[in-house]
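Hi everyone, sorry if this is the wrong subforum. Our group has a chain we'd like a structural model of before ordering constructs, and none of us has done structure prediction before. Sequence below.
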Amino acid sequence: MADALFVVLRKIALSLGEEVLEKIGKEVVQVAPIMTDFEHSMKQIEGELSILQAFIGQVSAQRVSDKVFDAWLDQVRDVAHEVEDIIDEHAYLTAQVVDTGSFFKRKFHQIKNFAAWQRLHSQISRVEARIQRLVEMRDRYGISVGELDRRNNLQLANQFSLSDSAYLTDNTEIVGNVDEIGRLTQWLLEEKQDRSLIAILGMGGLGKTTIASCVYKNKQMRTHFDCHAWVTVSQTYQIEELLREIVIQLIDPRANMASGFMTMSHKRLVEVIKTYLLDKKYFIVLDDIWDKDAWLFLNYAFVKNNYGSKVLITTRRKDVSSLAVDNYIIELKTLQSAESWELFCKKAFRASKDNICPENLRSLAEKIVAKCQGLPLAIATVGSTLSYRELDEQEWTFFYNQLSWQLAHNPELNWISSVLNMSLHELPCYLRSCFLYCSLYPEDYKIRRKRISMLWIAEGLVEERGDGATMEEVARNYLAELTRRSLLQVTERNGCGRAKTFVMHDLVREVTLITAKREKFGIAHSNAGIDQVSHEARRLSIQRGAHSLNSLATSQLRSFILFDTRIPSSGIYDAFSHFRLLRVLCLSFANIEQVPNMITELYNLRYIDLSHTKVKQIQASFSKLRNLQVLDLRFSYVEELPLEITLLSNLRHLYVYRIQNLHARSLNDFSGTKIQGHICCLKNLQSLHVVSANKDLVSQLGNLTLLRSLAIVKVRQSYIAELWNSLTKMPNLSKLFISAWDMDEILDLKKLKPLPDLKNFLLSGKLEGGMLPPMFTKTEKLTRLSVFWSSLEMDPISSLSHMLNLVELVLDGAYGGKQLTFCSGWFPKLKSLHFAYMRRLNLIELEDGTMTSLHLLNLTGLRNLKAVPEGIKYFRSLHEMFMIDMPNEIIERLQGIDSHIVQHIPKIHKFGSSDPQAAGDAATDAQCSFVLLLSAARRRSVCVNTAQQDRYERYLILTK
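Answer:
Right subforum, don't worry. Here is the predicted structure as C-alpha cells:
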C-alpha cells in the first residue's frame, strides 16, 4: 500500500516538473507510511473513545468524597477529551482535503499539510502512552474501579434521602402544603375496603418525606391502623434488607431473632410479611422510591385483604407515582413567596422575638429567599446556617455573593447539594450529558423543546436508535424522561398538551453547573472570574460581563452560546480564529451585520444560529460546512440564500424569514427568503421556514420526502397543483403554512386532495368562491387551524365542526359575514379560540354544550360586534379571555350590565380601541395574529429587556 501511494504521489510531482519533484521528494518518503497507517490508527482511537466515554459514564457518579479516585478519573476525562480532539481535528483536515477536488489534488494537499497530519499522528501516540500510564497509576495506587460496597452506598443514600426532611422534625414548624397534608390525611383515613396505594411526587428538597412523616406520626393514624412501618428505599436498595426492615418494624424483635429472620431469603421474607398482614389493617410508608421494580416484591408482600390498608410512597419520578391508581397522587410544588419568607424567618431569626427580620438585612434576606425559589430544603438549610452568623450586612452580602461556592464547599449546606445531586447521579449516561447541557442556560431561562433537541443532536449527545425514530423524536423522549424524573419543570404546553418550554430550578442549576465545571463539560460565564478550568471546558455560554471574548477563547470549545448582546461586533469577529473545532455556534441577537469569514472554515459546525441579527448576506463559502444540520436566520435581513446552500446535504432544519413592515397587517408586508438552485439536493431536510415560492421550487419540494414542517409564502394560483403534488410525497408532513402572493391573489383549492396526516395548518389568502374547500372535510387529525384574510362569505364554523381533534382555531380577517354560530356538541377538544378583524361580524351565537374544553378566548378588532356573546357563560372551563381593540361600549358593558356573563372567568384582559399600545402588546401575548406575532418579535428593544424577550419568544408560532 505504501509503495502504491508513493508511485501515485511521484506521478503528481512529475506532472508538475523536476524542480517540484526534488522539492517534495523527501516529504513523499515521510508522508507515505504515515498516511497509509493513519486510517487504522483512527479506527483504533475511535474505539478507544467509545470505551472511555462508557467508562466515565459508568463510574463518574459512583464515588463520594474519594479524592484519589476523583483525581484519577479527572485524568481519564482529560484523555477522553484529547481523543475527541484528535477525531474532530481529523474531520477538520479531511474536510479541507475533500474540498480540493480531484484525487490527485487531494493527495497533493495531504503532502502540503504534512505537518498537520504528522502532528495528529504524534498526538495519537501520546494518547496511547497516557492511557497506558493511567492503567499503571490505577495499579500503583490501588484504585478500585469496580462496584462499590453496596451496604455503604445504601447507608449513604439513606442519609441523603432523610436529609430531605431532617430540618423539620417538629410538625409545628411545617410551612405551606396545608391543602396537600389535608388531602393526604383524608385519603388515609377514608373507609375504603380495598388496599390503596398513594404517592407523593416532586423534585428533591420539596419536602415529600416531611409531609409523609407529618401524617405518619399523626395520633389518628396510630389508632386507625393495626400496625405501621416506615422504610427508606433509596437508589441502591437491596430487597432482602428492605424486607427485613419491614419485618423488624412489624413484628416483635425477640420473635425476629428467635425465628432467624436475618438469614432468610427474600422469598421467605415475603411470605412471612404476607402471613402477618393477612388479617390486619396496616399503614406502610415506602420513602424515596427510584424505580418501579422495587414494588414488584413489595406488592406481593403487602396482601390485599380488604381491611382498608394503605401504602404511601414518595418519589421524584412520575413513572413511579403512576403506580398509584384512582388519582391518589399528590404532586408537590415550590412554596409561595409568603410561605418561603415565613419559613426562612423561622430558621434564620429563631433567636429573635416573633422571628422578625432586621430592617438592615431585609433586602439581602429577600434576595437569598428568592434564590431558593420556594424549595423548602434550601430555604430551611440556608436559614439555619445564617442563624449562627452575626446580623451584619457585610457578612450576609458576602454569603449571598458566594452562594454557589457555599453550595459546593460549605459542610453546613451539604444537605442541599447532596439531595439535589442524587437525581443527577442516578441518570444514565445518555441523559446525564444532556442535562448538564441544560445548566448552561441562564437562571429562569425557558428552555425550548425544539431548540434544545437540535443542540443535543448537533453535539452528538443523542443516540441513533435505528428503529425508524428520528433523532428529534429520541431527543423529545429524553426531555420527557428528565421531566418524569423531576429534573426539569414544564412551564408551557401547546394546545395538544405537548411540553413546549422547560425550566431548571435555580439551585438545581447551581449544583449541576458545579458538576459541569468540575468535569470540564462546560461553564456559564456571568461576571464570575475565569480560571484555568474555563479554558479546558468544552462548552461556553456567555451570559453577561464578558467584555473580551479573546480571554475566553479556546480551541477545545465545541459549543459557544452568546446571551450577552452588549459585546461589540469586533470582539465577536476576533474570537473566531480560536474556534476551529466548534460544533455549535449561537449568536442570536448579537450585534453583528455580517457573518465572520472564519465561520466558513469551521468544518465541524453542525448548528448555526444567527437569528435576530443584522446579517444581510450568507456567503457562497457556506457550502464548505458539509456537516451543518441547522441554519437559523429568523428575523435577520437575509433576503436570498446563495445557490451553494443547496450543497449542504446534511441540513435538517432551515429557518429563514423576515418582516418588511414592523406593523404589518397585510400579506404584502411579509415575505420569505428566496432560495436558488436545486433544493431537491437537501434530502435530509425536516423543517423549512419560510421560503418564497417559485415554479422550480414547488416542483422540487417533492424530493424532500423527510420534510415534516413547511412554511411557504408568495404562492400563486398557478403553483398550487404542482405544490400539492409535491406535498403528497411527504408522508411525515404534519405542519404546513401557505400564504398567497398578495391580498388580491385568489387560491382555488377545490380540487385538491386532503393531506390526511396534517396536524397544523395555516392558510393565508383569498379563497375561490368565498368558502372553505372540500379538502377540509377530511382532515380528522388536524389539531391547529389558522385562516387569515380568506374573504369567506359563508359561515365556516359548520364546515369545520367535524374536526373533533381540533384544539386551536384562529380566524383573522377570514370571514366577511355578520354571524357565526357554534352548536352544541361541536369542537369538544377545542382549547383556544381566536377571532380577529372580521369587520362586519356583529353576532357570535354560542349554544350550551359547544366547546366544552375551551380554556382561552381571544376577541380582537371586532369593531362591529354589538354585545358580549351571551353564550360565554356556558364555558365553565374558560380560564382566560382577551378583549383587544374592541369597541369601548362593549368594554363598558363587560364591566357593567354584561358582567354576569364573564364572572366565572379568572383572568380577563380588556383593551378598548382608545388604548392602541396596550392593545398591541396584549395582542402579541394572546397570539391573535400570525403577522402581528412575527412583527412584535422583530422589535429590537427586546434585546435589552429580558422580560419582554421572554414574552414574545413564547408566542413565535412558526418554529415553536
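For your construct planning: The longest strand covers residues 227-234. The chain is about 40% helix and 15% strand.
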